[in-house]
Design brief:
Layout (H helix, E strand, L loop, with lengths): L12 H18 L14 H20 L4 H4 L10 H17 L9 H16 L12
Length: about 140
């Protein structure tokens, strides 16, 4: 059995009818369909890749600036910044505070921007700016 992924962006009755027709044909052809849908525009794959690039770049810039986790967080937590430390200890807490969501998978595109902008303001207080990656 071959698996093929098709993406539908349905924003009109005409798009909906076309997708239904295509899905019926695919089901009749294969006898199997697995469908995932979203009703709110969640963060894109490009944003997800950009988030990971941004976390890596932020960790590098913090390390290169001589800022360690002890200076950034609290005493007793002294290790060099890594992508995971940035994501789990900077991004996620701000994400939770801004959106009340635990997972970046549940973020909308505008929420990703809001979290980034809040962190960018906090980093700016330390004289650091990490632009959001244009490419994911």
């Amino acid at each position: 059995m071959t698996f093929s992924n098709t993406f539908y962006l349905i924003q009109s009755e005409r798009n909906l009818e076309g997708a239904i027709k295509d899905l019926k044909a695919k089901y009749q052809e294969n006898g199997y369909l697995e469908i995932e849908y979203r009703t709110a525009k969640s963060r894109t794959q490009k944003q997800n890749r950009s988030l990971h690039v941004w976390c890596r770049q932020t960790a590098e810039i913090l390390r290169n600036s001589g800022i360690d986790t002890k200076q950034f967080f609290k005493a007793g937590y002294e290790v060099p910044f890594t992508t995971e430390i940035v994501k789990n200890n900077i991004w996620r807490p701000i994400q939770k505070a801004v959106t009340d969501k635990d997972s970046s998978r549940k973020l909308t595109t505008s929420e990703v921007t809001a979290v980034y902008e809040q962190i960018n303001l906090l980093l700016a207080e330390k004289g650091i700016h990490v632009p959001w990656p244009c490419r994911g």
